[in-house]
Every structure is written in C-alpha cells, then in structure tokens.
Amino acid sequence: METRELFWGLQSAGTVAFYIIGFSAIGVSILGIVHSIKKYMRGRASPVPLDLWRGVRRMVADMLSHRTVRRRDTYAGTAHAAIFFGFVILFIGTSTITLDYDIVGPMFGVSFWKGWFFLGFSLTMDIAGLAVALGLIAMMVRRVGFRLPKLDYRRTYRGETDLRPPAKMWRAEDWIFLGGLLLIVLTGFFQEGLRHALESPPWGHWEPIGRLIGSSMLALGVGPSEISSLRSLNWWLHGLGALMFVAALPWYKAKHMIAALGSLTARDPLALRRLPRVVDDGVTEIGIGNISEFSWKDMLDLDACTKCGRCHEACPARAAGYPLSPRDFILDLREHNNHAQGCKQEKDLFEGGVISPDTLWACRMCGACLEICPVGVEHPVKILQMRRRLIENDELDPLLRNVLNTISTSGNSFGEPARKRSAWTSELEFAVKDVRKEAADLLWFVGDQASFDPRNQHVSRTVARLFRAARVDFGLLHDGERTAGNDVRRVGEEGLFESLVEHNMDQMSRAQPFDRIVTTDPHSYNTLRNEYPEFGAMAPVVHYTEILCELLNSGALKVAQPLGLKVTYHDPCHLGRLNKGYGAPRKLLELIGCELIEMPRSRDNSFCCGAGGGRFWIPDAPGTTKPSELRLQEAAKLGCIDVFVTCCPKDLTMFEDARKTAGLEEEFVVEDIAELVARAIKLDEFDLRDLPDLMDKIATSVAERVMVSVNDRLDAWLQEHGSKIQAIRYEAPDIPVTGTLPETQQITGESVQSSLRPTWTASVVAPIALRDYAAPAKEGIRIIVPIKQTGTLSEDFQFSPDGLSIKPEYFEYILNEWDDTALEQALQFTEQQEGGEVVVVTVGPPEAEGSMRKALGKGAHRGVRIWDDSLADADPITIARVLAGLILEEKPDLVITGAQSADLAQSATGVALARLLDLPSAAFVIKAQWDGASELLVTRELEGGIGHSISVPMPALITMQTGANSPRYATMRMIKQAKTKPIENVEIESLDESSRAAVVRELRVPIATRAEMFEGKADEIAANIIKVIQGKMGAKT
Amino acid sequence: MSGILVVAEHTRGVLADISAELVGAAVSIKKDIGGPLCVIIVGQNAEQFVPQMNLQGVDKIITACVGTEHFDATITEEAVYAAALREQPELIAIGHSSSGMSFAAGLAVRLGSGFAADIFAIGMHDGSIHATRSGYGGKVNIEIGFPNKPMVVMTLRGATFKPPIEDGNAELGEIEVDVSTKSAQCTKHLDYIEAPSAGVDIGKAEFIMSIGRGIQDEKNIPRFEALAEKLGATLGCSRPIADSGWLHKGHQVGLTGKVAANCKLYVALGISGAVQHLHGMKHVETIIAVNTDPNAPIFNHATYGAVVDLFELCESLEKM
Asked: So what's the ipTM on this one?
C-alpha cells in the first residue's frame, strides 16, 4: 500500500532528539504566546463592547475571501492568498500526519495515511507547497523590484534619509520571514525529490514536484550514496527549519498569523463612526498618554500590523507631507509597547518622544487607514484617545483652543449668536417652520458650516427651495440648534461634545413630532446617526442626497432639462467611507443627466479634503500642500470635467479655496449637488412664495418707500431750519476723523455755566463694605484675581427703551480675555511656588457664575461673587470700591487683574483698586517674575512695543496685558468637576448712587461707514490713499 | 476753583505726542470750562520739556522735579494730586497711554472725582462736562456725564485731538512733591527693552496694510512688504496668503489669525472680505479697501474704496 516512511533512516536517538527539539520549539512558541497575552493583559478593558460570535464569523469570512488583503493590491493579495492557503493546507497536512502517526496509530493501532488517501494527500501537498513557494517568490520580487513607497520605512516626512535602527530590524524580519518560509518549502521539495531519486515509487506521479526533482538528480548522475547523505542532511535542515519557524512564530513578523485573527475578530464594526466614550470615574485619567492605558485590543492591533503600508499610502496627511503615517504611528507604539512590557518606570508617550503631538494633530479622522487595513487595526481611534490626553493637558494649537472656547460659549464655531443661526432663511421667499412650535415630517439639522458660511448658506437656501418645490414638510430648530459636535469629539474635547449632545437632544425631545432628521452635513450626519443614539432615542437620520433621490424617483421633483454635464464626484469621508452612502449621490447625478467620470480614488478609497477631525479649524503649516489641492489635481487629470461635485459643506469650502490656491479656476467649477439638481429641475421657474408672507413684504416695501420719502423731506426741512433746531435738540458729537472736534459739542449756551456746578472738593473715596463676609484663614500665598464676564455684542443689537443700556439677549458672554491672562499668571505663580491659593472674584449677577466656573475649571481654588442690582452698569471706580471691600478682608499677597475689559476697555478698575488697597502697582504687564520674595520683577508694555522693566515691592497689584502668556484651556469636564469648588455669594452693605464717578447719559450707534469710492486713474487713487494715511497717522508716515 | 490741568507725558527723554494733543483738547473746551489751562510736567528734568509745552492757550506750566526721570505711577500720581489740590481744576486731562492709564484711575480715587477713560470727544452739557467714548469693539458710542462731581479725571484717546500749532505765553511755576510717605510704594526702574524688530504684532499695530489673494503670486510678496514699510504700516494678510506659506502666520488678520485690536487705519489690498477676515478688522475706524471686484463685500465695511488693478496702484504708491 502506498505510503512513506516518516523518520526515514533516523536512529532512535535521532528520533528522540527530534522530539525533544520539537517539543522545545512548541514550548518556545507557547511561551511567546503567553508572553504576548501577558502583554495585552496590561491594557485596559476595551471601551467598546465585543460581539465575539459576530466577530469570529466576520473574521473567518474575511480570511477565506481574502477580501481585506486583495483590496487595491491584487498582486500582493494573490501572492498572499497563495502563501496563506498553501500554508493552511500544509499545516493541515502536517497535522494529519501527526494525528495518524502520534495519536491514532499509537492509541488504536490504526493508520489511515496510506492508499488512495495518501496519494490524494501527496498531490495536494505538492500543489500547496508550490503555491506557497510561488507566493513567497512573488512577494520577494515585489519587495526588490517594485520599489513601493509604502514598503519604505524611512520617515521621509521627518526628513529621514536612512533607516533608523528599529526600521532596519523591520526590514530584516521581513526578509527572514519570506526567506525562512521559502527555505522550509524548498527543503521539503528537495527532501521529496531525494526520496524519489532513491526509491522511485510507482505512484511517484502523485508527487509531481518530488518526482521531477528526483529524476533530474538521477539525470545529473548523482550517486545513491550521495543522495542518501544529502537526504539525511536535508531532512534535518527541513525539520529544524520548520521547528524554528514554529518556535519563532510569536516573536517576530510571523506573529501576525495569530494576532490578526484576534484583531480581525475584535474589530469594532462602528470604529471611528462611533467613538468610545470617556471613562470618567474620577480615578482614570482622561485619554491616553501612557502605553498601558491602551486597551488589550489596541495592543493586539499593534502586534497584528504586518507593515503592509496600505494605510501609509492612503493617508491624506501623509500624502500632503504632514508628520503622520498611520503605519509608523502603529509601529512606533508597538516598539514602545514591547520595550515597556516588564519595565517598572513607564515613560510618557509624549514626554518620552514616542509619539509627537504634531503627528496626532495631523490626522483628519477620515478613516482611510482604518478602511484599508487588512488586519483591522483601528488607527484613528488610538489617535483620538491620545488627543484627549493632549486636550486634557492643554497641549493644543492656540487657534483650536479659541475655536473650542467659541463653541462652548456660542454653540457654533463661527462665534455667531444663536439668534443668527437661521438668518440664512431670511432671504427665502417663504417662512421655514420652527419644529419647536409646529410638527413637520422632516427635521433639518443644518450644522455650522451650512448655517453661517456665505457660500454654503447659498446651498442651504437651494436645498430649502428644492424641498419647498417638492412640497416637503420640513422645519428647523432655528436658534435651538448647536453644532452637532462630530468634529469637537474628534478633536478630543469629549466634555464639550457631551454638553452639545445634551443640548441638541433636549431641543429635539421638546420639539413637536417629526419623522426623520435630514442634514446636508455628513459630519453632523455621522454623529447624529451613530453617536447620538448612545445618549438617547433618536429619529432616523438621512442625508439630503437620499431625500433628493426619493423626490426625483417619486416624481415630486421632475427633471425639466437633463444637464448633459461631465462631472466628477467627491465622496465625503463621513458619508461615503464611514457610512457607506455611495449610492444616492451617484443615482442623483444619473437622474439629472450628468455623466459621472470617477476619479481614480473614489468610494471607500476617496481622498479626504483635509477638513475632518477638527483640522478645519487648525491652519495648515506654511509650505504644505493641502490635501484638498491634491484632490483637485487628481480631478484635473481627468481632463474633461465641467463640475467637481460635492455634497458636504466643509468640502465645498475646502475645494472652493483649493481651486483658487491650486490655480485650477479655469479647469472646472466646484458645486454642491443640490445646485445641479436645482438647475435640472429649473427651480428658478417655481413660485415658492408664501402668500401671507408676500403680503407682508409688499406692505413693508410700501412702508419703506413712504419712510424714505418722508425722511428726505424732513431732512431737507431740517437743513433749512437747522440753526433754530440746534438750540433745542442736543446732538452728541461723532468721531472726529481729523482730530478737530465737531462744532456740535460746544452747543451749550454760555450763561448756564456756574450756577449748576457743585462746590470744588477733593476727598478720597473709600472701599464699599460687604455684608457678613469673612475670608477663610490663609494657608500659603494667596493671589486674588478679579474677573469680569464680558459681553460680545452681536451686529444687530438694540438699546433698551431708556437708551442707556443694550438688551442682554444681544450679548455672548465670555470670560474677559485679559482676566484670563491674569488668571494664568496667578496659576503659574502658585504652581512655581508649589502651593497657595488663587481666589477669583467677580462683581456680577448670577449669570456671571459661568465665567467663574470656567476659572475654577482652570485651577482657581475658590470664587467669590459680589452683587447688588444697584451695581448694574456701574463705572470702574465703583466696581473697584466693591472689589476693595472684599480684598481688604482677604489680605492677599498679590492681586492680578486684567489690564482692561474686552467690552468697555477703560483700563481703570485695576489701577483704581491698587489705590483703594494702598498697594504699589504696575499696569500693562507683559512679563512677571516672582520667587515668593518681597519684590516682583515685571516688564510693562509701553507704546510701540517697548518694554519697561521695573521691580515692584510686595504685596502689589499688577494688571496683565494679553499675550503675556497663553491661558490654559479648561475642558468641559474640568469645568463640570469644578462644581465642587466653592463660590461664595456676597452682598454689599449699601451704595450711594450719587457717589458714582460717571454715569451713562446716552448710547448711540456710530454712523455707519459706507465706502466712499475713490475714482480715477491709479495715480489719483494713490494720491487719495496717501492723503487719508497722512490725515490718520499724522507725521509718522 | 476752575480750569483744566493737563498732564504732560514723556518717555526716555522724549515728550510724547499725546501731551500737545491734550493741550489741543483742553483749548477747545477752555472757553466753556473756564481758565486757567495748566500743564504739569513730572520728572527729574521736567523743565527741559517746558518750551515744547508752551503752546497757545496754555496759561501756566508747573514743573514737578522728582528724583527720577523714569515714569513711576506713584510719584506721578502724587505730583498731579498735589497740583490738583493747589489749582483746583475742573478737568484733569491725561493721555490714554500706558503711563496715563497707570495712574489716572488711582488719582480719581484719591480726589474722589469723576472719571472716564479713552475719551475721544469732550463737551459741556447743561453746565457740566460730558465725554464720549466707544464701547463693544466700536459698535456703540457712549455719552458719559459726571453728576455731582466738581472735578473730572479723564484719559483722552491719542491721535484724535489736534495740538495747537502756535507757541504760547505761559507763566512758569513749580511744585514741591513729597513722596517720602509713599516711598514704600515706589517701583524701581531697571531697564528698557527695545521692541523686537523682526516680529509683527497685528494685535498692537495701529496701521496695517493687508494683502490677500489679489497679489496672485508668492514672488510679489517682497514688493508689498517694501510698500508696507514705505508707508509705515505693519504688513497683514488674509488666510490664503498665510496658508500658502507666503507670509508667516503672525501676519494673518481674521478669525483664525489675529484681531487688529489696536488698529486705527487698515488698508486691504486684494482682499475680498470673507467673514473670517472681517472678524479681525471690520471694527477699525478707517478702512481703505482696494479690489478689482466692485461687488467685493469688503466695500460694505470700508470707509474708502477703490476699484483698480492692484499692481498699477502699487506702482503709483511706490512713486509717491
């Protein structure tokens, strides 16, 4: 019966030795696996749930189909499949022999490895071995011959020209892996050939390769004794090679064979679409700054990476020259994790230089790396968690910090008041429902960019008109909507994201019934669809392209004129790759008669415009090519495009900009898909007006005309009778442009003077006493920082009826920037001196507690708020008197105030306060040093940027100029946590209203400036400009 | 019992422009308030500035020779306080400058006077002083009165009031200032630090010339840099210019750049006026916008505008 001898020619001692080596190899392998498992067990629990059964099914499907390995690289995919399946078959084959020889045989005395089974087995093994060999050779050829950038481990974006030491190791292991495997397979075939040469079995054609080698050897005239000795030598070579492979498996690149099974199984199906929530138990630090803070799944990911470089190739940041390659990010973490295992003192990932913050900030959270990774590594989620730590440590771009501050105060990234959120609808011919008051089929969640950016407002209006034309019943949350927070979350400001979710959820839950939520913004779409449901029940969320498709399909909108344009379409990352919304936009383009010419990178391989992950708010470094420009160049290469179509507001902004900066203005236009639909259905020809609204508009327009006509006549009459009027009508002066005062200010009659004047006296004003306030006992140094919640006035404000104040709804309240600088200085002093307390004090109504909480969130120790209604609109000296009443009780070592407030900018409170407290002072400080001794070294800022260095005896008061430091960022979570810090509310004894140092008599809007146009030739215009400059800047020019 | 006291200001041996401008403002209101118009100069060598302050309309110049030529808030306040008690003025005018702001409010506390800062227009209304300042980023003008106050301390905005041109005929006087009781509060002068010349500070610049996409090419940058220098302006830019790396980020004006917080004159060349850019400069008192597009939104915010080819204009300005 056909079979072969296993331990051919081996003495029993040899067999024993082989078994010893064999078991040792398996032991080393198991040791390696245990070592890895122990490594992963250092990690935290996975922050997302694991569906093991589903995960295993998907992993097996991915493995059998080789879907993830074949994508976008058929060559490597095919070669890998040959190696993989060949190897699996060889492994099964070897296991079968073990089963027959070591288990079934000794135990039951039966053998099945013979006869027809043996023949089939032999042929299969030959074919499998051949497949592995060919696959390995193909891979080697690819490494040597193709010069693929993705396989180059030099970090060229960091200016590396040579491989660094670990990268050399990577290259070595790549070759050891390929070479070692090939050696095993070839020695296997050789062994087979030797057997054939020696035995020439009659069934030899069942092992065609062995037979071929054997007959070749015989043909070459190799003698039987040589064959015998070769056979014995090669047997050991093959056997030891195979055992070494087994032993080394979990210790180098081959590890991916096991780790990838885990990473593919544990892959989060919603990775990046739905980010993990923050564990906020008060003990766990937020985010990730140490390797052991990663979860076991993250660590498994690191080990699963095969360095295939597909992520490196797909990454838009890497392509544009930013210091990020997802591959290197993972490999750097892996190296570090391997070193860190067993180390007692773990170094910080940032301070230890493992990952640099600019690498993390380069990420666009577009998911291209995650999408293409064949082994299910989730790079962006790791980046995000590390960003969370950066945010927590206040290590972020100052501009990003500003944006986050803006969003936390105004609810949008534009810093516009909520009232103006739906201002874009005012130009529509019809009123848009307020879902909070009226039920609607669709709730349109507009998003920031579509609400405030002029180019996108135009698109928003087009979409609204399309809906209207199709009689879609839709409404908005109007000023109730805040930014959805997709990008806020991706920046890493989880607390702010949560507060935005809370607000929007609350608004939606209080709204009248609606069936679905629609949005034009894929970023909002993603978070509303995938993340909001974790916080509460949500209606289904659809993208407007789906709705437009529905409307065209149902006939609610009819194409009047197919456009016949050649267009290319850019898949927004958050719609396409992350939510698989590839179909609707393409269907739409087809329905409106556009010929779609796809870019080389489309659908899941779409190339990010560069705006995601908060990068929209962080300016690109000078000299870098923007991803959006690369994308447009890709479109331009198509050569025949009329329109570059987008369906994402951020895309529209990015690509409109890039079209100009990349010099492609002649090539094609960038348009939103809704604009094309509008043209195809001839939206212009629809009458979309509201009848009652129309009546209103007519009435208003008539009224306006009457007003204009009356005003003109009134003006003319006034001019004629002006001199008489002046005597009875007080008109305050306007800003004198030239420095001469307008005549109107000297209108007072000469005779009214002296009788009204109070008698001349001079007596120092005193601090205003507080009701029942006792400061806590002092422990260490005490620094008082008076703060003010200042109002930023919106464009369309109105005065209160008495004309002496502005209605509060027109203000956005924020912590005064100068006071923020003062607070930062105070916090730095206490940090430098490792102790003491910073007390923030404000004179303000209960609403001012918002800013105080922010200050406490940043690290101030306690707060005191003083208020009395009589203090509304008080002058700075009165405010200083109130503050002095408190500060005298506190007996501080130092008082630090802002040099001015952003709203009224008198620069007086601090200096007045110093006098009331009888403290030495220095104003407009741009640098302060204090070592706790009796003297404070400061630099004051003088005009023209000159610094004046002085020393100030302590205790003292200084007023800080902005720019002296960059105030730290308090995350929303820190602010929430600061709720446990005390704020004491104090009232004043009494205020003599007549003691005010100034009162507001009238508020006026300065006369609006409309550009006065200079006409004529360039020379004449230049002369006019010079005249203005000289008039304004005086002799300086 | 009446009159105006003007506080002259000097730094490093140079009289500040604001000093004469304060006199100009005082002269314009002197006939309403009544005389005399006194000027006080505080400093070790105060008399060296007497000729420059002897301007038309000034009735009296008081020198307060104190032990230091460097500004100190406590000493200056003490000197002006002493002069105020002696002269009993109805108005004390101080520059809204780094030095002026360092002691004006403290002085008002000492005197129990009325107080207002950064005033750009003064007048009389029903027999008492009123003043105008602006608030909320220039969106509102605020008229201020000082009821029940026989005296008002004010800081006045610079480059706003015209100084008298003619020389005056003022009487000279001195005042002894005793700072011994306040010596514990005096600061010690250490050094002056020159402004860094290479850096730009959009936030502090008073005159900014900004360039936008209209300059077309990076190679045109040096030309506009030279023009800005010639005009005495700080060079600013819009986002695309900084994004392209043509100019350092520090030059960028706007939402994501710097706010031209102290700018008084802004020349926008080839900037269309995106909201983000307007955010950083629309509050500026005087804006000159130059663009080839007559519908550019920047013209809605500018004081003066011109539709002209940027490079032709640049050439004309270079010739001037």
From this structure: 0.81
